[in-house]
Task: structure prediction
Amino acid sequence: MTNGGRKWTRRAAAALLGVVVAGVGAELGLRLFDFNVASVNAGYMQFGYAQGIPAFDEDGVLVEGRSLKVRLFEPDPETFWRPIPDAVVTNSFGFRGRTEPVPGDDSERIRIAFIGDSCTFLGNPVYPELIQLALQRRFADRDFDCINASCPGYSSFQGTKVLPRIEEWRPEAVVVNFGWNDHFQSIGGLSDSAQYALQHGLRSVGLVRAWLASRSHDPVMRGPLGHYEDHLEEIRDTIIGWGAVPIFVTAPSAFVDGAMPDWSYNFYGKYHGMDRETVDAIPRMHAAQVEAVRRVASEPPCILVDAAGEFPKSAEPIEKVFRKDLAHFRTSGHRMMADLVGPAVLKVVRRAIARQKGS
Result:
């Protein structure tokens, strides 16, 4: 190699080393000062809330239109946000409800877990509580824990991340009910899985990707249909891997295709950045997700509770079943859910009792 060639090689190596050092320095600086990607993307990790997480009860957890004036949620590195323990409507483990599940390896205790969104969280009582009461009445000599690990705003992706928190409870079954938040538009232009990857990868790369996403005008769903089905399959396979039974619930809706209410355009436009055409597509997107749940739950040991198919058969007036938002349940709706989900849970409980008696 000539002297000129060696000089060029040394200069190239020095330049490359400089780039590496600068990159490492930038990454360390971003981590040292805990630089928030939200500073370059106002919609980052945001679910219709100015704070980026549902910091307070803005939906009326217990009573429709009557918000609790206490902080209910906190940031979480895995699920973006989670309920705060001992926060009026949560127990000491951060699960919805004031009943305390009993930890430990109790072979006589039967546990059923519930994961989902605000449709399993909002109400008084919510359907997991009604199911637990029914089990306790039917089997007075048995101990039950119905662990409600749902949270407002959760998508199916967040469902995959909440599973490790309930694995240690060794539930006999997990009731899975995610039917709304995946098909809502991401305000920051990033799907939930993309946001998670940015949060757990290189900060410098996340900064650039978040900045680019904030300037994109292409609508992105929090959980596009393909992602939604993949996440449900991951949830299914994980639960089966524990030796538990996945009970999948299709989410009922009172929205009608071609007849979206006037308030919906302002609401979903303001809080989810959705234009009129996208709002009009909500019933169709919801129906597509219902079909995805049916596919994922089509094979044993899964149990399908087709609430979306059963609710329209009820003679109960819609205004008694659903809140004004046409998605969340009033007391009658939670009772209907308990009547539909309860038999599936009961089937699993009977198997567990028979197994315990035979051991």
User: Anything to note?
Assistant: The chain is about 45% helix and 10% strand. The beta strands are 73-76, 80-83, 109-116, 143-148, 173-177, 245-249, 303-305.
